[in-house]
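ARCHIVE CARD
CATEGORY: sequence design from structure
SOURCE FIELD: tokenized fold
FIELD CONTENT:
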């Protein structure tokens, strides 16, 4: 099975370039609902894995031990924009576990939010690790290290207690044995995990509809993560970020999580139409994050009934604007109607 064209980039009325990729939709029991391309292809979760990287922190009792609030749990699973409210929550998380910004090992980058990034640059302010989009995830990893009595200076290294707990969690939710999960290092220096795209969709199906094979602390952690994402969509991404806008457009209906290099995983919560919910996974083959991916995600959610044709119409089709501000084309979905199994 080959990747399929998922989005066309059209200038005037001529297709100038394309974005190919793969999609799979499963229900909460793991049955395949629809596919495009090859759902068996293996790729990295990237930041779409954050729910499972935070899961051991919550299920172990560490989140309760340190008194983490729901907004702090949301930031633990976020790829935030480094806006002031994101930074404040990340700092608060570290204070609760008795640590500081210097204990993070995620590295430094300017905020993803362009307004805040420009403001800081103009003011001569330098970013800290708190501005890193993964600072909430790393704060939770540090909290788990403290809770387990593990070395906080090596919490990010593969094979350490924190990362071993995360690997086992990823295995449990994807149903892929740990020795079959490829491990690489993410942009934030933490381990990340490569599994088939179908396993990614299945993991989000398990997240929103965990069966009784999962122990009660894990099922409770699932509920808390999904609730936090729904209650605080502005923390999961930030101003004008895809995850935030999608969840705000369909409040209480779905969760959305981007990953770098063209990955997106989402889930539609159980409803009358989908009693066990849906897990959805997308990989844009060329790694596009900003042009094809939003258009494809929104069209998928429209066809699945989570969004209407009028929802997020400024993003899908996405206008192409030249440097003078003229509309000169569009990016639009190209995969037609989903064929349901």
């Amino acid at each position: 099975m080959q990747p399929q064209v998922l989005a066309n980039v059209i200038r005037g009325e001529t297709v100038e370039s394309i974005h190919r990729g793969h999609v799979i939709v499963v229900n909460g029991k793991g049955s395949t609902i629809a596919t495009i391309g090859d759902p068996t292809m293996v790729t990295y979760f990237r930041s779409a894995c954050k729910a499972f990287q935070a899961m051991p922190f919550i299920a172990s009792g560490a989140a309760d031990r340190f008194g983490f609030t729901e907004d702090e749990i949301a930031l633990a699973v976020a790829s935030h924009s480094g806006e002031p409210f994101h930074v404040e929550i990340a700092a608060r998380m570290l204070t609760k576990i008795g640590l500081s910004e210097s204990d993070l090992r995620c590295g430094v980058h300017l905020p993803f939010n362009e307004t805040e990034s420009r403001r800081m640059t103009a003011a001569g302010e330098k970013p800290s690790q708190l501005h890193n989009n993964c600072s909430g995830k790393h704060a939770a990893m540090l909290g788990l290290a403290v809770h387990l009595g593990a070395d906080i200076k090596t919490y990010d290294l593969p094979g350490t207690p924190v990362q071993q707990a995360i690997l086992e969690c990823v295995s449990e939710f994807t149903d892929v044995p740990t020795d079959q999960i490829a491990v690489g290092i993410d942009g934030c220096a933490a381990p990340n995990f490569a599994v088939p795209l179908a396993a990614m969709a299945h993991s989000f199906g398990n997240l929103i509809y965990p069966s009784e094979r999962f122990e009660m602390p894990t099922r409770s952690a699932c509920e808390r993560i999904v609730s936090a994402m729904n209650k605080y969509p502005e923390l999961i991404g930030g101003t004008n970020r895809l995850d935030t806008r999608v969840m705000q457009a369909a409040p209480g209906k779905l969760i959305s999580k981007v990953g770098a290099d063209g990955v997106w995983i989402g889930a539609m919560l159980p409803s009358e139409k989908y009693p066990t919910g849906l897990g959805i996974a997308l990989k844009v083959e060329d790694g596009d994050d900003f042009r094809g991916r939003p258009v494809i995600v929104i069209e998928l959610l429209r066809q699945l009934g989570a969004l209407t044709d009028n929802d997020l119409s400024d993003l899908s089709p996405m206008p192409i604007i030249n440097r003078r501000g003229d509309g000169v084309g569009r990016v639009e979905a190209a995969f037609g109607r989903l064929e349901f199994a």
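CARD ANNOTATION: The CA atoms of residues 81 and 241 lie 8 Å apart. The first strand starts at residue 4 and ends at 11.
SHELF: design records, drawer C
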